[in-house]
Amino acid sequence: MVKVQFTKTPSSGKYIVTAFQTIGYISILAAKYLEEKGAIQEIGFVDLEDNVPIAMIIDGAVKFPIRVLEGQSTIFITSEFPIQSKNLVDLATEIFNLSKKYEAKGIIALDGLAIENPKSESEVFYVSTGGSAQVAGAKKLEDGVMMGLNAELALKAKLLKIPTTILMAETHSNIPDGIAAAALINVLGNITKMAVDTTELVSEYKKTVEKINDTVRKMKQKEQPQTSGSDIYG
């Protein structure tokens, strides 16, 4: 059973945005960055009664693993933990129930799109069901496969004829990809009119990657002093 509980009642007429685990952790990273910048604030949680018990500790406070946050034009539902497959259908249903109850403008799911080689900029693609034919700053995805919660959202949206958009940013990374997360935030802002500077997010990611590459280079130098190797991250 899935139950949403609010500590503060959200306003109606906003976009509902989902941010769960993806490749490169970009959806979660995007939501976390927006929270850190004060663009969204926690207003509740989702209780999955059949899920494995998990409690988060944030700033010394115990939190439910699936949190609900609200911004000027958005209501975010996000979790840093994977959702068990048996709860996906009920969670998707509850998201659509919230959409109807609070007269949401639409549902936007944040996702990642795996690519083989790194890029200096991440392109964003979208799939839309019953919504706008175009998304500013993103390209329409012509072919692909979705799995998990976002697939359930897309299929249910198609049946219910509820405007739903899946945003997918390119990422190759095995660590939280700040470039891709920033790209998601920028395109999300085009839809929701939420303006957030992502310069710091990209900068911190590049610093992290450089530290990893520096460590890899030093390890290679110790193992093979006469042989130079390429970085594992771009």
Condensed summary:
The protein has about 230 residues and is α/β, with parallel strands linked by helices.
Sequence of secondary-structure elements: EEHEEEEEHEEEHEHH
Instruction: Examine the coordinates and then state which fold CATH places here, giving the name of the CATH topology.
Output: Rossmann fold
Count of distinct structural domains = 1
DSSP strand (E) fraction? 25-35%
Task: Trace the largest sheet across and list its strands.
Answer: 1-3-6-7-2-8-11-9-10
Could you tell me the mean pLDDT?
86
Give structural notes:
The protein has 234 residues and is α/β, with parallel strands linked by helices. The chain has one domain (2-223): PAC-like subunit (Rossmann fold). Helix content is 33%, strand content 26%. It has five helices and eleven strands; from the N terminus they run ββαβββββαβββαβαα. The strands form two sheets. Strands 1-3-6-7-2-8-11-9-10 form a nine-stranded mixed β-sheet, with helices on both faces. The protein has a two-stranded antiparallel ribbon with strand order 4-5. A hairpin with a 2-residue loop joins strand 6 (66-71) and strand 7. Helix 2 (88-101) packs across helix 3 (149-160). The longest helix is centred in the C-terminal third of the chain and has 25 residues, at 199-223. The protein is globular, with a radius of gyration of 19 Å.
